[in-house]
Amino acid sequence: MTLAIRLALTGAALVALLTGPANFALAQTKGGSVTLGIEQDIAGFDPLLVGVYDTGQIAVAALIFDTLTRIDDNGAVVPRLALSWKASDDLKTWVFTLRKAVTFADGTPFNSQAVVANYARMQDPKNRCRCAIYINNIVKVEAQDELTVAFHLRAPSAGFPGIVAPSTVTNVIHSPKAMAIAAEGQYNRNPVGTGAFKLKSWASGDRLVVERNLGHWNKDKVYLDQIVIRPLPDGPARYASLLAGETDVIWHDNADDIVKAKKNKAVAVYQYAGSGASVVAINTNKPPLDDLRVRQAIRHAIDMQAFADTLYNGLWKPAKDPYGPGSWIKCANTRLPTYDPEKAKSLLRDYGKPVAFRLTVTATPRGRAIGQIFQEFWRAVGINAELNQVDQTTLVTKAFTREFDITPWRIIDLADPDPQMYANFKTGSPVNLSGYSDPEVDKLLDDARASGDPTKRSEMYCTIAQRINEQVQWFWTLENNYFALAKPELKGLPKQRSDEIDLAGAWWDRKK
């Protein structure tokens, strides 16, 4: 109960932090435009159609939408659309008091009914939203009055106010009216939220433009007039666009460029080590990947430290579990498979048949490089891996429809591992990409969700990691280390939690 009390007090006591110290605001200037370079084109924003938000969608969602809470740079859960919150003694009901006089960009009021409508739409079985698995701990969302909304949970959740903080697909609040009046499928490209900015124009593959929302509830703390989001799939070209002044800030994960940027006074480097990990999912319903010996051989064949050093210059470290350095879960031993090519060869000899499969990678220089390194490791032990190069949107679609042998994925940075672990590894989940069913993991997931004891939950999640490391339906590659590169004059970028480049409060320092 101690954690719940602390969270409840956080919501009530830290309202003033939302606007920040008054003297800090004196340095901030109004006006101007910022261009953000992201890795891939944006697939849209309707949860029913996209299922999850990738890094580009999260960056735009942080501008167009608001969430009930947010996590500040000190790691505290602070108010956003909700002013305060409190929990029942059993941590299974959370009641949020909402901010008054907030409207969506279409002029309709934000209230408890709007929150209810968002969750009901995602959870409605008729809508078949893949996103529903991420919120299946929520039994019911209830409007107690106009500005009071209660979340009734299946199992206790001490960290629930932090879970609803990132601008991920299930957390942002859409206008119920906009979703209702849009023709089927049209809302996906016409999102309406309560955010600091609203959609102005959108040319697929070229740019998405948002403009300042003059009706925003916190408009005095919105400084930019416009933000342009440009998909630039090629990493080096994206970095070159920043140096050339074609972009002002970019999402980036090219280690060579980041090393150069750290030495360049004309570039500000933002770095955040979060929870989660970069991962690889194995489709265990496809031979020969349905055989444990083959999956274990695949993992034993890879020298993950050499992979990290070769491709990422040591900026990223090999992951030992799906939780990462930013998580409150700390596992002493997850029984991580070691690099052991002789063990891999022995397992393959025991299997007794040729092993071949297709590795899906993004059709980018980085994607090809990752694939080629893995190919070489596997070829050294007698495994034949063919690269299947696709664009990022196709990769996500093929993953959800299980049209892959082995595919890269990511467990993003969240305040609590429950939503993603449950979605990724629970039997029958639409986001259980491997299709693997492990009754032991199922029970541990349920028990961890039901427990309010952080120590016991940590032990259970560490046991889950051990189990997955043994069964190898997924394997972890690197810890999540997020980078944004920007012009030094651009200020007001918070920590990149959940890989979210949040420009909603950014501003230009005109003195530079």
Structure description:
- With 512 residues, this protein is α+β, with helices and mostly antiparallel strands.
- Helix content is 31%, strand content 22%.
- It contains 17 helices and 18 strands.
- Mean pLDDT is 93; it is low at 1-26.
Helix proportion: 25-40%
Rg from alpha-carbon coordinates: 23 Å
> Which sheet architecture does the biggest sheet show?
8 strands, mixed
Q: What's the count of strands? A: 18
- What do the pLDDT scores average to? 93
Major β-sheet strand ordering: 8-9-10-1-11-16-12-15
Short key terms for the protein model shown above:
alpha+beta; globular; 512 residues; 8-stranded mixed sheet
In brief:
With about 500 residues, this protein is of the alpha+beta class. Helix content is about 30%, strand content about 20%.
Write the topology of this structure.
Elements: H1 2-13, H2 22-25, E1 33-38, H3 47-50, H4 55-64, E2 69-71, E3 77-79, E4 82-87, E5 93-98, H5 112-123, E6 138-145, E7 148-153, H6 160-163, H7 176-181, E8 197-203, E9 207-212, E10 226-231, H8 235-243, E11 249-252, H9 255-262, E12 268-282, H10 292-300, H11 304-312, H12 341-351, E13 355-362, H13 365-379, E14 383-390, H14 392-400, E15 406-411, H15 418-425, H16 439-450, H17 454-471, E16 474-486, E17 490-491, E18 507-508
Parallel strand pairs: 1-10, 1-11, 13-14
Antiparallel strand pairs: 2-3, 4-5, 5-7, 6-7, 8-9, 9-10, 11-16, 12-15, 12-16, 17-18
Helix pairs in contact: 10-12, 15-16, 16-17
